[in-house]
Amino acid sequence: MYTIGIDVGGTNLKAGVVNERLEIVAKKSIPLVWESQEKLAKDLADLAAAAAEAAGVAREEIGSIGIGVPGPVDAAQSIIRHTVNIPITNMPIGKMVGAYWPVPVRLGNDADCAALGEFARFGSTDIESLILVTLGTGIGTGIIMNGKIWSGHNSCGGEGGHMVIVHGGELCTCGRHGCWERYASAGALVRQTQRAMEAHPESGMWKLCASTKEVSGRTAFEAMRAGDAAAKEVVDAYIDYLADGLTNLINLLQPDVVCLGGGVSHEREEDLLLPLRQCVRERSIDRDLVDRHTDILTAKLGNDAGIIGAAVL
Amino acid sequence: MYTIGIDVGGTNLKAGVVNERLEIVAKKSIPLVWESQEKLAKDLADLAAAAAEAAGVAREEIGSIGIGVPGPVDAAQSIIRHTVNIPITNMPIGKMVGAYWPVPVRLGNDADCAALGEFARFGSTDIESLILVTLGTGIGTGIIMNGKIWSGHNSCGGEGGHMVIVHGGELCTCGRHGCWERYASAGALVRQTQRAMEAHPESGMWKLCASTKEVSGRTAFEAMRAGDAAAKEVVDAYIDYLADGLTNLINLLQPDVVCLGGGVSHEREEDLLLPLRQCVRERSIDRDLVDRHTDILTAKLGNDAGIIGAAVL
Fold it and tell me: How far apart are CA B215 and CA B228, in angstroms?
């Protein structure tokens, strides 16, 4: 049997046929064209059919469909409560897609699905808890405990990016001051790099970018490797902030694994993961109490985590 | 049938016979006299027997024993890994107490047991998740999710007091800078009150204490009620810090209930809980997304939470 995992994004709808080894057999993607809930349900059903056809899998071989959406859901009833960037409120997507596909249709938040996908690749006998921390414009977190998504009593939890680590700090989009994502997201790293460049006209970071508009999450890391002191300060401070939030998560929840996702997570191990692990180890409350500590790893599934996670739902 | 709950503290051992309605039928307490693991196991077994006798309950009517200890445990095997303030390492307490009592002996961390006790009083059909936040010298947190203790992959989690909310802030006993408990514990409130008194020789707080040594967690609240401006500043700032950590917990885990325990939690509702709830509501990410929010309540079981929680294990 196969499962279809669907990742509903703000710009694209992606569906993949996933086999029992959690491999994607075939994928299909179409742009999201928002008209109505009815149109979206039909588009998703058609996309699932197209993915099955591309995989050469008969409809009868599809055991279930899982859908991940950007926003809080009522998983028990497969209802989307609300989405970010798409004007959906209270959509019974399970029932609506189920009208086209007579199989169970399960629903999850996209960040939670991605975490579930990363969790699934370990095999359920090895670990029972994982937090996926995605470093993008903001910081997304997906929490798996006892092998299941934990998203709070009505699915609005899992917002680790909106954990204040700098009381009274920078204003966040959520309205709070000093959220972790203002300091440790890829977006924050870009802002920190831009500020350092403006303060250091002599910095080698300028050689990598014609203007501060071209700064990326890689700029400071690259300049640091070339020996630039201002860039090293940016990277050190960034890792310090990243470690503070990760240590908070570990002190509170002590999961088996923390996975880092997003572009920044692909930096060289010696420049990011190794110093980060050392910072977190030195700071966590369990450092001298136990032999086995939370593993801090790079996420492996990348853009496919959402599809695979939705399929695992 | 009855259960015996035992609370192992740094100075006293307390045992209670608990009935099926989670009421304590009888309690016994003895000072902890540390000699050896063997002696402690025998003391606990004798204390359980004394509690059963005080309750007028025959040994055959005791179905199980639960023990809460101050430190991380291996709950699956009923082994104490390590305790704070008592020199215990790797004690198979389940097996050792089981030699005297032929019933299942379960083990938990004391803060987790207290959270489980608070959770149990709601009845498992009403809520499925709760965080107990105890405001004492530090801040203790016990996490219940899906009706069970969550203490991390090897029981060193649940340390919400050691979540940094002030990056680079005050040095904590754990070695980090800016932990929540440095700003929002009862101990922190006392230090904040002392500093405000030294800065404000005219403050009404001096009338309540002959010296700053007599300051308690109640001083600022009492002076505020008498109209003292400096005291109001202390209370407002304290609630601000407390709300920051609580909002972090709620954004991340969104439990059904957060219970506040410890002396400070008994302040008048209009002075503590009401402004605190308002701060947290304004700051939490789910404020406009859902109708039902995390309830912030005062813990009800007080000193008995450990015994009842251990009995529920």
Answer: 15
Pairing of strands B295-298, B257-261: parallel
Kindly state the percentage of chain A with pLDDT values over 90: 81
Residues A19, A29: Cα–Cα separation, whole Å: 18
Which of the residues B283, B285, B288 would you substitute to probe the A interface, choosing the one with the greatest number of A C-beta atoms within 10 Å?
Answer: B285
Three-class SS of residue B33?
A: coil
Rounded Cα distance, B255 and B8, in Å: 28
Q: What's the pLDDT at B286?
A: 80
Are the C-beta atoms of residues B286 and A155 closer than 8 Å to each other?
Answer: no
- Its ipTM equals 0.92
Q: Is A113 part of any domain? A: no
Give the span between the Cα atoms of B229 and B246, in whole angstroms. Answer: 26
Which of A146, A174, A283 has the CB atom closest to B146's CB atom?
A146
A220 and A81, same structural domain? no
CATH number, domain of B65, equals 3.30.420.40
Chain A residues near residue B132 by CB distance under 8 angstroms: none
B204 and B261 share one domain: yes
- The yes-or-no verdict on residue A242 having pLDDT over 80 is yes
Same domain, B158 and B275: yes
Taking the model in full, what pTM does it have?
Answer: 0.92
Residues in A closer than 8 angstroms to B175, CB to CB, are 282-283
In a domain, A116, yes or no: no
Task: Determine whether the interchain pair A244/B72 forms a contact, defined as Cβ–Cβ distance below 8 Å.
Answer: no
CB distance A153–B255 less than 8 Å? yes
Q: Are residues A144 and A30 in the same domain?
A: no
Nearest to A238 by CA among A158, A159, A176, A182: A182
Task: Give the distance from residue A120's alpha carbon to the nearest chain B alpha carbon, in angstroms.
Answer: 17
The residue of chain B with its CA nearest to that of A245 is B164
Residue range of the domain that includes A45: 2-103
Is B108 part of any domain?
no
Asked whether residue A207 is domain-assigned, the answer is yes
Tokens 């219940």, residue located: B144
Size of interface A-B (CB pairs under 8 A): 148
Q: Is B215 exposed, middle or buried (0-12, 13-18, 19+ CB in 10 A)?
A: buried
Cβ separation B241–A176 shorter than 8 A: no
Q: Which residue, of A88, A103, A118, is where some domain finishes?
A: A103
Residues from chain B that touch A128, judged by Cβ atoms under 8 A, are 153
Which of B124, B148, B163 to substitute to test the interface with A, most A CBs within 10 Å?
B163
pLDDT of residue A155: 81
Residue among B88, B54, B56 at smallest CA distance from B74: B88
Across chain B, mean pLDDT equals 93
pLDDT digits (tens, 9 = 90+) for B148-159: 999 988 788 899
Residues A182 and A33 in one domain: no
How much is the pLDDT for A179?
97
Smallest Cβ–Cβ distance between A163 and the set B156, B169, B248 belongs to B248
Q: B251: which chain A residues are within 8 Å (Cβ-Cβ)?
A: 157, 159-160, 162-163
